[in-house]
Amino acid sequence: MKTTQTIAIIGATGNMGSALAKSLSKGNYRLLLCANDLDKARAVAEDIRKNNPAAAAEATDCSVEASWEADMIIVAVPYAAEKEVARRIREVANQKIVISIANPLNDTYNGLVTAPDTSAAEELQQLLPNSRVIKAFNTTFAADFATPVIDGKQVDAFIAGNDADALQVVSELVSTAGFHPIEAGELTVSRTLERMQLLLIQLNSKYNYNWRAGWKILHQ
Ligand SMILES: NC(=O)c1ccc[n+]([C@@H]2O[C@H](COP(=O)([O-])OP(=O)(O)OC[C@H]3O[C@@H](n4cnc5c(N)ncnc54)[C@H](OP(=O)(O)O)[C@@H]3O)[C@@H](O)[C@H]2O)c1
Question: For 201-218, b where at least 16 C-beta lie within 10 A, e where not — what string?
Answer without folding.
Answer: beebeeeebeeebbbeee
